[in-house]
TrEMBL record:
Keywords of this entry: Carbohydrate metabolism, Cellulose degradation, Glycosidase, Hydrolase, Polysaccharide degradation, Secreted, Signal
Organism: Rhynchospora pubera
Superkingdom of the organism of origin: Eukaryota
The protein's name in its UniProt record: cellulase
The Carbohydrate binding domain, residue ranges: 513-595
Amino acid sequence: MARLMSATLAILLLFSFRPTNAYDYKDALQKSLLFFEAQRSGKLPCDQRVTWRGDSGLSDGFQKGVDLVGGYYDSGDHVKFGFPMAFSVTMLSWAVIEFEKEFITVDELKHVLDAIRWGTDYFIKAHKEPNALWVQVGDGDSDHLCWERAEDMTTPRLAFKITTINRGSEVAGETAAAFAAASLAFRHYDSFYADVLLLHAKQLFTFADSFRGKYDDSVQCVKKFYPSSSGYNDELLWAAAWLYQATNDQYYLNYAAQNAAGLGGIGWAVTEFSWDNKYAGVQVLLSKTLLHNNGGGYEDTLKQYQAKGEFFLCAALQKNSGHDAKMTPGGLMYIDDWNNMQYVSSATFLMIVYSDYLASTNNVLNCPDGQVQPADILQFAQSQVDYILGKNPKGLSYLVGYGSNYPRHTHHRGASIPSISVLNTTVGCTEGFDKYYDSKDPDPNVIYGALVGGPDSNDAFTDERSNYQQTEPTLVGSAPLVGIFARLTSCPSSTPSQSYSTPADNKPDGAPLTFVHTVTDSWTANGEQFYRHSVTGTNACGKTITYLKLKFDGLTGPLYGLNPTDDKTMFEFPAWITALAPNSQFSFVYIQGGEAAQITVEKYTAN
């Protein structure tokens, strides 16, 4: 017989410390590399692991008399944009340079080198003469009018090239950087290939510098998708810095030092590192040169680069005396409304490599708000990664396929339409929109390792295929994650958290539920300290609870995982919990500053 009871549950909060469970960074690394296989264009290799994909784009470039088969599709569409693709290859290569040992330890070195080579093989095809480079295949406008699999593509595969007349220093410089960084990644494993890559890097740097011009002036159609906002000066410095790393040739260090002011390297203090704006990357990379005593007489200039790089890092770490990067209430860096996670991953990569540079040279980061130890930089970076993997207000992994709770409706054509091996009939442009784009069904193909755009500035996220700002994955977002995950496989996952519990022997007589209340994260945003409170409730009444109303006293922030009522202090079971069996559990999360909220059971029904 059902009985309706009203009870007050006095929660005894016992303070203790314990480490939280580790996130599986190795698993995240393995999945992030699978994403690059899902994005492959061209004839797929026999060891392709993402089997729902097939061959595609097998005649790319043929209309122009050049073989441009291969490379990567950019995001959820089928355009091959050379500029962000090159940045992605640079970041993958940087990961191998810094974390080669970690890749070897977890047996992923082959896969990351394969991911780099898939890009550099394509760039070699695109660079057939010293002063020309094919920089795009496909047209964004026509491509976006179709929702079809890569294997079914019917859109024009137009190819675009930069030359001494139609210039493009940004994309030439970035591709030079990619070649140079990749030559370092391959140096110990394929020295001949590394030499080939380095030759292309040198030629493209000379081309970019000698024939300066903006690439989106020459390739007008790219302006809607990857416009050059910061210009090409940062790419020239970026390419020179990487060529110095790859060659130890004083010429390239001279270039970076002598053009430091003229090209903005020591003038720009930025809070973004991205496919468009490389200044923070240049500054951190040249700081490595300084810290390792390889300054070649340019120490004073390199210190100016370092100061600007540390401005970026201090802002990210919330230690920049009011000039900090914006944070969401849940503790995520927030740079842009459009695909914010790409900026989080790139900034986090810089934090991790710089923490290692400092640690290896016994240095600290000096911020306006005080010194920061290398371990503290790493800890903050780890908090960003853990947010991505599920330590966030929604308890959602923004890395597709990681854990059990992740986006199921990605803005990705191939993921949303059944594989050609399952549905061996052509899916046309409009049929794809009508049948699959608008479908509420989850993706039939899980695109493992895809980092989606992520939540908004208030940690809200809507898992809808049409919500491309939040649900579309990109190469540039995922590439930095590969190195981040590799590095974190060699360190503990989380710092200790504060735990509050109600042990069974202290549970008030007759109380229907016990709660374990854990503070899983804390951060400062806009000068205020916030805490993420995770609460797990257990049915202790011996009967199945079919209705529950909880009262929260002292709740000042958002709560996730329970249904609100008209009374803002009262919450009920969420829609997905219709019954809670004896000894079963449910969880919810809330965020606020100050003390924990007091929770009481206002009403419940048990059978």
